[in-house]
Amino acid sequence: MVNIINKKSLFILSMMACSTSYAASFDCNKASSDVEKMICSDHKLSRLDDYLSQNYKIAMGPDMPEESKSKIIKSQIDWINRRNACTDIQCVEKMYSKQMDYLWNECFDHISGKIEYIKFSEAIDKIKRELDSQEYNKTHKKPEEVITEISNKNAVKVYQLGFNKRQLESTLFLDGFGSYFEYHTLRECLSLIYELPDLTSLEMINYKGYAGFKIKTTGRPSSGFIFREENGEIYLNGLVSGDKVIEATTEYDMREFARILLSYTNYVLDNNNVRD
Hints:
Elements: H1 9-15, H2 34-41, H3 43-59, H4 66-83, H5 89-108, H6 120-139, H7 143-153, H8 155-159, H9 165-169, E1 171-176, E2 179-185, H10 186-193, E3 199-207, E4 210-217, E5 223-230, E6 233-241, E7 244-247, H11 251-270
Parallel strand pairs: 1-6
Antiparallel strand pairs: 1-2, 3-4, 4-5, 5-6, 6-7
Helix pairs in contact: 2-3, 3-5, 3-6, 4-5, 7-10
């Protein structure tokens, strides 16, 4: 964690006349005061401390007049003393707000062009997005994590469908606007299909030498897919619609069949809190 000025005030005062930059950090592992511990244990305060440290370095940069730097150093010493007198998070946050606004006002007239100064309101927005992202990552998993969990859960049922091991472990290739891309293995796709809501049956089928599978859900006609095998790879090649099998004859057919298959598997992933 980063903090502003961690050395004794007397040392700062003795160096003010010749100092052109000053900023120090405190190690959270060595935090001793209640306020330091409070900052280290609270994400918002810790990040505000980071941003204030960044702003302070800008204020101590070469574009700032020495007179302004001396004024800012004195302000910083006073600010630390007042911040360290706080007894709750709200007080500490308010102190960061005041000092960040103060530094902005001091820097505004002296630093031209693009600078990396972060105003308090901007810092709060950034921190909120960080916290939202952290919460999202706690409740959502990576796609591969969900697929692995579901594959393990449905492993026995998938193997009982009757596909051979080579087929199940082969990667399914789908057409994506003229070029094929690797999706998941057939085993993983079937495992996801088993998680469809209102699924009543999933069975292996054979059609003109092609292997495939048929899906039945409550209140809907049967659907499914067939694929062709080529050099140890499998390619989506047809669509099951009720009692009919529609073979792909154009690139549009292959893309449309791929879209339908993805709608099934992505529905399952989206309903298992997969990260975007």
